[in-house]
Design brief:
Chain lengths: ~160, ~800
Amino acid sequence: MAEASVTLTVNGREVSATVDPRTLLVHFLREQLQLTGTHVGCDTSQCGACTVHLDGRAVKSCALLAVQLEGADVTTIEGVGGPDEMHPMQTAFKENHGLQCGFCTPGMVMKGIDIANRHAAPDEATIRRELEGNLCRCTGYHNIVESIAAGAREMSG
Amino acid sequence: MSERGHIPESRQREKPRADLKWIGKSMKRVEDPRLLVGKGVYTDDVNLPEMAHAAVLRSPHAHARIVSIDVSKAAALPGVLCVMTGADAAAVCDPLPTWASPPVLQPAIAHERVRHVGEAVAAVAAEDRYIAEDACELIEVEYAPLPPVVDPEEALASTGDAVLHPDRGDTNIALERKLTFGPVEEDFAAADLVIERRFRWPRSGGQPLETVGAVASYDEGSGRFTIQCNTSMYNYCGWMIADTLRVAPHKLNIVPTLAGGSFGSKMFVHKVPIIAAALARAAGQPVKFMEDRIDNTTSCDNHASDRVYYAKLALKRDGTLLSLKTRIIDDYGAYFQFGVGQHGNALSQCVGPYRINSVEVDLAAVLTNKCQQGAYRGFGSEVANFVIERLVDAAADELGMDRIALRRQNFIQPDQFPYLIPTGNMYDSGNYQAVLDETLKLADVEHWRAKQAEARAEGRHIGIGIATCQERSVFSATEFWMWNLEPGVEWTSSPDGVSVKIDPTGKAFVTLHSPFWGNSPETVAAQVLAEQLTIDPADIEITYSDTDQGLNSTGPGGSRFTVMVTGAIVGAAGKIREKLLRIAAHLMEADVRDLALEDGAVHVKGVPDMKMSIAELADKAHYYRLSMPDDLDLTSGLDATYVYDHPVTTLPDADERHMGIFYPIMGHSCHIPVVEVDIETGQVHFLHYAAVHDCGTMVNPMTLEGHIRGGTVNGIGTALFEEFRYDEAGQLTTALWTDYLIPTIKESPADIVVGHVETPSPFTEYGVKGGGEGGRMGGPPAIAAAIEDALKPLGVTIDSLPLLPSRLRALIREAQAKQA
């Protein structure tokens, strides 16, 4: 099978790789770069567990091919903050019990940061409208909305 | 001993207290940091050197004979390491583990016959998943279709080619049993009124975001398998996996990974690890098999109760409930993993919170061409809640009584606990009036009744529903007794263990013997051990054992974890505390009875300055044997294990008059949703939702509320949207999440107002009760009642779920036609 090469920036580092052209971005991140914080949930772009940032905007990495990303800037959950220096959005999820099993969480955090980047002080209706494409089976969403509101406040403050 | 059995003495050691420091606090979760930064290791995050990837070819037919399979093209594809058909698998594996006796034989990969769409027909291991899936497409299978059996009531009469397992006789009835508890016929004869209804409970499932997976390796040198997997119950019955793989149980180590949610669906995962392990042995290198979504929805243990009820409730004209009779047809799908355990479960609380004198259950478990049943939040008891609540609503309507008043009249009273219900199960404690009163307060029913009247005047349809539901917790293996026609599993133990050690520097280590399932096991363990040893939770590290190191532990499921691990930690911490005090007494030349453990140090009572910290004592315990008493039983170090048995169970009656006590730690909830139904579109909007739960002493109100809200939204999914729907040909038309409608944020109420009542259990440590499943146990009947109330002007009756807009529109059209 023909292989293709791609050069992009992931979490601030330039990465050049050879990929099977059909490789999805999420598999490229997980399998080739070992960035396993980005998860695969539904396979059909319903759940948003695979959400990453592409040039600063939240996208579902199961709906993109790695070869589409020549020159792109990708950020995954690993690029957002580590356990000792969490991003305010990560801290807000901890403080507001915005996660249970944690599987949707990286996607929710990435989406939450994106919402906060585009809305200075998002109200509940805005957060709920924006979160339509991210599924959580554990929390009933209540605390996720609280977390994102708190994280956004912290980010703008 | 009465007809219903006897109640043993409580073995509770720790009473609930007001002065607890950690139990009862909304401590932030220990699990969170690694999950938040993308460093939690779920099964799919495990990568081993030389690891291959598996994919599975699945049956497109509901029911067919496999005439031939040609794997030659697949095997020849570059990058393919191994292709395994059903025949190949049968040569190296026995049938999958089952609790049904006589068993319904289930192969890991279908052999000669497929019995449902999605059943595995062949498995491939390849260098990567993409190649493995390419190879599946190259496998050529010829099928000879057989008649599909889809309707459970038609399955009662199947014969000939429509029989799925001819080795069990010319029938698709896997098991049929009638059980009678108490004087049912006399009670029906004494009744003034019998409410009769047919209910249909739909097949739905846990649908966690993470599917099931396994990474298996086989070491030829030692002949041992290692399987990393997001399963549970491995330290209870993981050896059954070894049996299927035809190795001795000590030649298999199951290592738990984090699970990205379960809700019951990963209770005893067997197909995936066995396929991965069989491939790893055949390929000679480690294999990862991670289900994709279709693998999971069509073929894992993700489908739950799928029942038809013909129910009768006998009562007096004054509203006194007397007796309950149900004929149940449950569609188990093609296999029978847990037997009819879901019905044993339902009998733990089938009379709800009400005084009902007798019960009859006439059950037919049928086999159809669908995925087999497994477990989902409630494990069948949530269906019993729906049935009894709908019957009580119908009875109130029939009598012209208020639905709330009829409930109050029949509640078991606070002074009647512990209370044995007709099936023999015990309700340990409760205060149903208090829960109802608190919910009515939070729901502000008066306000919504006024709104409802205003809306009706405008031609709008607002409805208020109520359900007062049991929330059984802490299952016991003795519930299994009615699973089988022939003697099968007759276990009476269902414990959970823990290992605790304090290292020489005073840090604490807890090893749990059951997995992270998406709940908060580390937080619970840290809070309880901190309470017991008066230490800081930040000084406690929590890990999970594999089966090599494991103590007998049943694992989470049946809302067991918090109660059982609390009990195990109390046991282990007690041993450590005793040793600390003994060492301190020796070193401080004091009498043990004069010492107290407080704030992380042992001190002489009344002399706060005479003290030694746990770290100082741990140092002595580890390194200064010659400073210790010269007793043989006083060994160096500071550690303890404890296996905590179920706090209260009894044996089932030999004459089947009752099932014994098997699910006794009885929580309770009241749900009051307020909905508006748009009768033009059939859409349901939540205007308000109040849920009050009594889960005894709360260990962590924050995480409990998380369970309640999340479980309630699961209940909304069951009530309004979710169904594994098979068409007449046995095709699953809702295999993907494009069609199987999990509630998104748009369908979830903006706020579920949660309240608590705490009626401590007299049987468990600190009085804790389980609360993992309650939201889904209370939501569906309450939502059905609210919708029925909204549509009261049209005379619509709700007796089946899910209430999709199309279904509601059909009911509304029917009602309008009748009115016209």
